[in-house]
Amino acid sequence: MVSSSTQRFDGHAGTGAINARLVHRQRIFDVVRRFGPISRAELAKRTRLSPPTVSAVVEDLVRGVHLLREVGVGVAHRGRPPMMLSTNAEYGFLVGVDIGSQTLRVALADLEGRVLARLRAKTDAESREGVLLQIERSIERVFADADRDLSKLFAVGVGAPGMTNVNEGRVIEAAHLRGWVDVPLRDRLQGRFSAPVRVDNDANMAALGERWQGSARDIDDFVFIAIGAGVGAGVVVGGRLHRGHHWYAGEVSRMNLDYRDWQVDFGQSGYLEQRVGAGGPGGWKAVFDDAARGDAAATAMVEELAIYLGTAVGNITTVLDPAMVVFGGGLSHAGASLIEPVRRVVARIVPNVPAIKISALGDDAQLMGALYSALELAEARLFAIAGQGP
User: Fold this and answer.
1) Which residue, of 230, 232, 258, 269, has the fewest CB within 10 Å?
2) Cα separation of 88 and 382, whole Å?
């Protein structure tokens, strides 16, 4: 009886020791990811683990699963200089894809988000299958250009120009791409590359990009408004994207600013897109250029644009009270010539005027957001690997 009991106790003890080691691995990996490069001594302080435990786990993560790497010696305040540790940024690779109605952008990055290769091409928008094949070949191309191993693709983020069901990774409808209705994009790419894929609306991806590296860095409540071939918005509330019950949050193209037009059929665009989309008169870049040269007609068009956008921002502000509104897409080239008149209109509508800025990332906003989305997928996957057994 005693022997049987002892055997059971020893079995539990062994399992507990294994579980503790895996928890320690996850804790140490997370601290290195957040604070690296970092020494073993500093790791022991931050994790409150004993130096021998830290040394054993680090050895496992460096020599065993290769999630960490030694990156040189640090500064010693006394004694021997410490060996510094960092995450192994090339343990795997990330891909971001921005599917535009006219331009396809693809970027390859390491696990710290450093871009290693880029591709920009005219979107093959003649058919649904043509775009899908172009995306797949472009992913292969950036790996070849960077001389990296495609089998180490770790995660993919994709921004699509239309409504998306993020849970299913399905593009519900992309009005500016022929045949793009109910496209199972996530399943298609996961089947091709055997890596996790996240698909989201391009305006949502742009909002993520601006919060990661752009004008809205670390802002928890803001709205990104993209105006290009179409008009859309990415809404961030409490630091998280708000997509809505039907994935329709941010479809500001349909915002109606004149009750007299409530019965007008604007097709797939909507009232606001009809007034301010890039399909409007002349294209906005040319209009801004002419206005800067003092052209009276162009100046009048810019003022009218500011009224429409200012009214839209005023309406958004009454509902969401964001700290900031960021304009992107083709309007990212407008600068102060647009922002100041928009701000004046908003101030006439609401007392709580948000900060209004132009995208700091310009045409890269969606692409950077797609990379960030892939990085989020990768972090969860890496954390799981760190917690697996030897």
Assistant:
1) 258
2) 11
pLDDT tens-digit profile, the chain (390 residues): 333 333 333 334 455 666 787 888 889 988 998 898 999 999 999 999 999 999 999 998 998 889 999 988 777 676 678 889 999 999 999 999 999 888 999 999 999 899 999 999 999 878 899 999 999 999 999 999 999 999 999 999 999 988 899 999 999 988 788 889 999 999 999 999 999 999 999 999 999 999 999 999 989 999 999 987 788 999 999 999 999 998 889 999 999 999 999 999 988 788 999 888 765 444 677 888 888 889 999 889 889 989 999 999 999 999 999 999 999 987 767 777 788 999 999 999 999 999 999 999 998 999 999 999 999 999 888 888 887 765
**How do beta strands 153-160 and 197-201 pair?**
parallel
- pTM for the predicted model, two decimal places: 0.86
**Are 199 and 299 found together in one domain?**
no
The range of the structural domain enclosing residue 148 comes to 93-205
Dihedral sign of CA atoms 313, 319, 325, 326 in order? negative
Do the Cβ atoms of 138 and 144 come closer than 8 Å? no
Q: Is residue 105 part of a domain?
A: yes
Residues 38 and 80 in one domain: yes
CATH number assigned to the domain comprising residue 239? 3.30.420.40
